[in-house]
């Protein structure tokens, strides 16, 4: 199994390398200029944060559509805090921003675990609700560079050893979340819950608590992304981050996270995010018109899902030949009965 | 030995046919207990159990590990348990029996903390047992093998065994190595070879069941509850499971064993508690009772366990299979069945029986060979095609492959009939109910009503719903895999009568069964498989237990007829 998963991650990494090589051949500024290299790492960073949180949630057989609105609300709140309370130090404001993200995630988690309504519906609701709050709060105002301290904005542009700080943060998050989901006791339980929710209960796993935590994690990472968004773009309007939620889901799916939960890795989702962001940058350089970019992403998603299905059937057949034959695992339609998305 | 599953349905027969310690030749603890027992001291509901009212005068009776007193469980209007009583001593294997829907699994789930009781009391080692979650129960020392599978298909076998209490190593991180090694040891005690690193996805039902057993055994609990653990196992594995259960008992654990197979109950248990309609009926020493008594107490009447057989003359060959081969699974399988004939397929679990019928029905592909229906080749084109030619398959793993657990009973039964029942594309619920009602009555499905969600039925009743679903399609060729698995004695006889009637009406029946008496009692011809090959085809007159068993275990390769 890990072998198959590893293959998915390597294949994405490979696709990424090919894309970068092709784009660089077309225009060597894509990689070889100092800005090009920075953008290669910087452009996907925020999406990586969202994709990691999304992966954790999807692995538990849920989905969090509200991340883009969380990002927007936190980004705006962060800027506003600098405006309204100039006395607060930068780290304190950043921390408050992240905590706001965690709180918004907790609202999602609380609703999903207590209301017994599918997370797809709940987070679709909060996607609009959180955005609505931002719109009411911001109106047509926007936070601009002048409203925020320079030391804060520097985080968005600074580099260590040539690598953007924001990208380093994303990397640390990927490693941390990867270790947690791959090797922590409670992290492994995420997979069990997504794989078979009923069995998870019978095994005595605290299903509600874990799912709640997955949403808090997703909200926290979206909050972190919101703070970094404000630092990096230096202007925040009420529509900040719109549309990123589907990109985050797409990144996770392309990266091999099964949409019905139970399998996939954070690293895969992160690679998926990098691939998506890089495609966004590479296609214009390759002279491919804007509207084709969407189509390419679509093809990637469908390709990834078809690949999953083919691999699953193959794995099942291989596994079968080692034991007594049994059914290929029931198709998603059958599996979804106990689950959420 | 491989014999258990294949012995006759009578407890008495066990002692002669089995060279494992049978119910009479025994382990020290139980015979000491059994000897002074007052004859079958039945514990009527009037005599509540428990430390306060010890059983009989015997001072040697140890304090019970588990006491269940007046346990009640309602699901809305459904009374699943009315007044359950159970007492299990340390070092005892206690069989719990009752019809489908009697409340056995509900009792198990109350012990396991899956549900909370409506009323009543449970005591473990004298202390109140009030688990709010399965984790509480586990921590208190209760291990459970549930009737329905509880594995995680995406996780490795080792992780499945330890889920909920994964072993950790350095830095508090999960240690796959430790779990792999521990799992390997545990599997070895059961004599099973399953790679601990492989995912549970794709394990056969038997292997899934073995993993469940390993999982429960690894807890080393005070009380081990097994809800129909043998339903999917063949003789060899059943024997190993029994060996493990006896080991645990001899170490002083209390074991509760639920089964619908009387040979197993009499081979393994020290005492038997009978339940009916959620109430305690009796508790008695296994040595002091017999199958007929237990059946009468379960069902409330005597059941005719004779196999029905109306005389019939088989017609033309309807289904003919030649040289069917799938690499690594089965090879060169030839079989044919005539209209009005029952062809029984015997063999151990894993011999490729189910795989052959699945391939015939078009669920799995085969590499070479032909399937003919009425002399015409049936292309490999999926189950739809097979159904169009009048084939029906009742699959082995019914819960997963046959039942829509979130739909109503009526909808489930009528699902395969949609086209026939609908008028101008609209399925009238009247028609749906009529069919569902008829079949529910025939198979004695115990449900609140036909609108009940199938997932809330007892395990055996779910099996009946799936049976009804396929039988109601009136096929010309019925492929039926383990027709009576998980089904209680009363209904078993009903299913047998039904199969006989179908054959009488000219249906060609192919019946796979792990129960030798069933195969021998029902079939016109018996085909035996071993490791993917047909090792014998026997006429009814020639099919005796020894011949079939030796062909099934591959000890004798009789000439293929
Ligand atoms: N969650 C539930 N909701 C409603 N009714 C239920 C539920 N669980 C069980 N029941 C009902 O309780 C009764 C007892 O079911 P239970 O599963 O305990 O039977 P059982 O003795 O285990 O039968 P079997 O031999 O078929 O496994 C049945 O009538 C069943 O329909
Ligand atoms: Mg049951």
TrEMBL record, chain A:
It is a multi-pass membrane protein. InterPro entries: ABC_transp_permease (IPR001851). Keywords: Cell inner membrane, Cell membrane, Membrane, Transmembrane, Transmembrane helix, Transport. GO terms for cellular component: plasma membrane. Signal peptide: none annotated. Its main location: membrane. Pfam families: BPD_transp_2. It is found in: Cell membrane. The chain crosses the membrane at residues 41-59, 71-100, 120-139, 160-183, 211-234, 246-279, 291-311. GO terms for molecular function: transmembrane transporter activity. The complex is composed of two ATP-binding proteins (LsrA), two transmembrane proteins (LsrC and LsrD) and a solute-binding protein (LsrB). Part of the ABC transporter complex LsrABCD involved in autoinducer 2 (AI-2) import. Probably responsible for the translocation of the substrate across the membrane. PANTHER family: ABC TRANSPORTER PERMEASE PROTEIN YPHD-RELATED-RELATED, AUTOINDUCER 2 IMPORT SYSTEM PERMEASE PROTEIN LSRC. This is Autoinducer 2 import system permease protein LsrC. It comes from Cellulomonas chitinilytica. The gene is rhaP.
From TrEMBL, chain B:
Keywords: ATP-binding, Cell membrane, Membrane, Nucleotide-binding, Repeat, Sugar transport, Translocase, Transport. Residues 28-57 have a biased composition (Low complexity). The keyword Membrane applies. GO terms for cellular component: plasma membrane. GO terms for molecular function: ATP binding; ATP hydrolysis activity. It is a peripheral membrane protein. Its main location: membrane. It is found in: Cell membrane. Residues 66-302, 311-556 form the ABC transporter domain. Residues 10-61 are annotated as: Disordered. The keyword Cell membrane applies. PANTHER family: CARBOHYDRATE TRANSPORT ATP-BINDING PROTEIN MG119-RELATED (PTHR43790), D-ALLOSE IMPORT ATP-BINDING PROTEIN ALSA-RELATED (PTHR43790:SF3). This is Ribose import ATP-binding protein RbsA 1. The gene is rbsA1.
């Amino acid at each position: 199994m890990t072998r198959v998963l590893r293959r998915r991650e390597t294949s994405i990494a490979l696709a990424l390398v090919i894309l970068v090589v092709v784009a660089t051949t077309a225009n060597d500024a894509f990689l070889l200029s100092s800005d090009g290299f920075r953008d290669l790492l910087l452009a996907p960073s925020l999406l990586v944060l969202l994709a990691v949180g999304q992966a954790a949630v999807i692995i538990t057989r849920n989905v969090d559509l509200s991340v883009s609105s969380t990002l927007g609300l936190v980004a705006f709140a962060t800027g506003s805090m600098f405006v309204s309370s100039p006395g607060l130090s930068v780290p304190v404001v950043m921390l408050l921003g992240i905590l706001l993200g965690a709180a918004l995630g907790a609202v999602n988690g609380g609703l999903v675990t207590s209301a017994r309504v599918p997370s797809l519906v709940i987070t679709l609701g909060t996607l609009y609700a959180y955005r609505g709050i931002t719109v009411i709060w911001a109106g047509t105002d926007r936070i601009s560079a002048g409203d925020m301290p320079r030391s804060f904005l520097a985080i968005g542009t600074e580099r260590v050893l040539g690598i953007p700080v924001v990208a380093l943060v994303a990397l640390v998050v990927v490693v941390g979340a990867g270790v947690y989901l791959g090797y922590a006791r409670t992290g492994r339980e995420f997979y069990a819950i997504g794989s078979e929710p009923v069995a998870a209960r019978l095994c005595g796993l605290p299903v509600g608590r874990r799912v709640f935590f997955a949403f808090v994690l997703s909200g926290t990472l979206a909050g972190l992304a919101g703070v970094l968004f404000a630092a990096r773009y230096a202007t925040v309007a009420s529509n900040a981050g719109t549309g990123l939620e589907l990109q985050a889901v797409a990144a996770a799916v392309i990266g091999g996270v099964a949409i019905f939960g139970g399998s996939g890795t954070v690293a895969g989702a992160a690679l998926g995010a990098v691939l998506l962001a890089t495609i966004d940058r590479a296609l214009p350089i390759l002279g491919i018109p804007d509207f084709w970019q969407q189509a390419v992403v679509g093809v990637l998603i469908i390709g990834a899902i078809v690949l999953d299905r083919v691999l699953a059937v193959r794995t099942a057949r291989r596994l079968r030949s080692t034991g007594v034959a049994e059914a290929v695992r029931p198709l998603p339609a059958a599996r979804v009965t106990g689950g959420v998305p | 030995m491989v014999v258990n599953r294949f012995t006759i349905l009578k407890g008495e027969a066990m002692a002669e046919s089995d060279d494992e310690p049978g119910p009479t030749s025994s382990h020290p603890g139980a015979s000491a207990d059994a000897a002074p027992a007052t004859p079958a001291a039945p514990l009527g509901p009037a005599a509540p159990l428990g430390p306060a009212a010890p059983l009989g005068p015997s001072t040697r009776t140890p304090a019970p590990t588990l006491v269940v007193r007046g346990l009640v469980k309602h699901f809305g209007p459904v009374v699943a348990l009315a007044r359950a009583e159970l007492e299990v001593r340390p070092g005892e294997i206690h069989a719990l029996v009752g019809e489908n829907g009697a409340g056995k699994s509900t009792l198990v789930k109350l012990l396991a903390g899956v549900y909370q009781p409506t009323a009543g009391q449970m005591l473990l080692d004298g202390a109140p047992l009030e688990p709010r979650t399965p984790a509480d129960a586990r921590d208190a020392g209760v291990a459970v093998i549930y009737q329905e599978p509880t594995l995680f298909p995406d996780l490795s076998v080792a992780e499945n065994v330890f889920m909920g209490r994964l072993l950790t190593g350095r830095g508090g991180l999960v240690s796959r190595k430790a779990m792999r090694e521990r799992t390997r040891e545990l599997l070895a005690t059961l004599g099973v070879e399953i790679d601990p690193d492989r995912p549970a996805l794709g394990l056969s039902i038997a292997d899934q069941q073995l993993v469940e057993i390993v999982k429960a055994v690894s807890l080393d609990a005070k009380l081990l509850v097994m809800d129909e653990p043998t339903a999917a196992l063949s003789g060899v594995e059943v024997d190993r499971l029994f060996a493990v259960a006896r080991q645990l008992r001899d170490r002083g654990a209390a074991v509760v064993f639920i089964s619908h197979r009387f040979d197993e109950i009499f081979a393994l248990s020290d005492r038997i508690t009978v339940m009916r309609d959620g109430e305690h009926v009796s508790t008695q020493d296994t040595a002091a009772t017999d199958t007929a008594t237990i059946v009468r107490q379960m069902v409330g009447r005597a059941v005719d366990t004779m196999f029905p057989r109306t005389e019939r003359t088989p017609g033309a060959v309807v289904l003919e299979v030649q040289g069917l081969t799938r690499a690594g699974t089965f090879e060169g399988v030839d079989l044919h069945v005539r209209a009005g004939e029952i062809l029984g397929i015997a063999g151990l679990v894993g011999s490729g029986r189910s795989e052959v019928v699945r391939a015939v029905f078009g669920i799995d592909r085969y590499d070479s060979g032909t399937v003919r229906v009425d002399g015409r080749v049936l292309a490999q084109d999926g189950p739809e095609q097979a159904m169009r030619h009048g084939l029906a398959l009742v699959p082995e793993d019914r819960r997963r492959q046959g039942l829509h657990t979130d739909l109503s009973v009526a909808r489930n039964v009528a699902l395969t009939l949609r086209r026939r029942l609908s008028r101008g594309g609209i399925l009238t619920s009247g028609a749906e109910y009529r069919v569902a009602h008829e079949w529910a009555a025939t198979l004695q499905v115990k449900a609140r009503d036909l609108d009940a969600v199938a997932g809330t039925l007892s395990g055996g009743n779910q099996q009946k719903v799936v049976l009804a679903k396929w039988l109601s399609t009136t096929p010309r060729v019925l492929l039926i895999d383990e027709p009576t698995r998980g089904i209680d004695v009363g209904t078993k006889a009903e299913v047998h009568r039904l199969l006989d009637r179908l054959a009488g009406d000219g249906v060609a029946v192919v019946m796979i069964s792990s129960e030798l008496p069933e195969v021998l009692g029902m079939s016109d011809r018996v085909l035996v498989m071993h490791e993917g090959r047909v090792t014998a085809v026997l006429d009814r007159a020639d099919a005796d237990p020894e011949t079939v068993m030796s062909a099934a275990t591959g000890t004798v390769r009789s000439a293929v007829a």
